[in-house]
Amino acid sequence: MAEGLDPEGPSAADLDRYGDELVSCIHCGAKIYDQAELCPRCGAIQEEVEGSLGWWVYFLVGLMVVLMLMFVF
Ligand SMILES: [Zn+2]
Q1: CA of 56 to the centre of ligand 1 (A)
Q2: Beta strands in the chain (DSSP E)
Q3: In this structure, are residues 41 and 8 in contact, taking their beta carbons and an 8 Å threshold?
Q4: Which of 28, 35, 39, 73 is the most exposed place for a label (fewest CB within 10 A)?
Q5: C-alpha to C-alpha distance for 49 and 7, rounded to whole angstroms
Q6: 19 C-alpha vs ligand 1 centroid, how far in Å?
Q7: Centre of ligand 1 from the C-alpha of residue 35, in Å
Q8: 41 alpha carbon to ligand 1 midpoint, in Å?
Q9: In the chain, which stretches have pLDDT less than 50?
């Protein structure tokens, strides 16, 4: 989408500082930062949909690698 910047949304300076990772608020649809936990417009808590499968995936992969190494040696 190439619409103009929302005056209530993040400013260009903020975009420069935080990057342009914007998501839509799950409650009101406002453009908010990907890392934001709360919507600045309606205050809704943003549930982490992606990113929640972070550490344990790496943990399982690491565990499998360790098990494979144990079988090799
Ligand atoms: Zn919202």
Answers
A1: 29
A2: 22-24, 31-33
A3: yes
A4: 73
A5: 27
A6: 20
A7: 14
A8: 5
A9: none
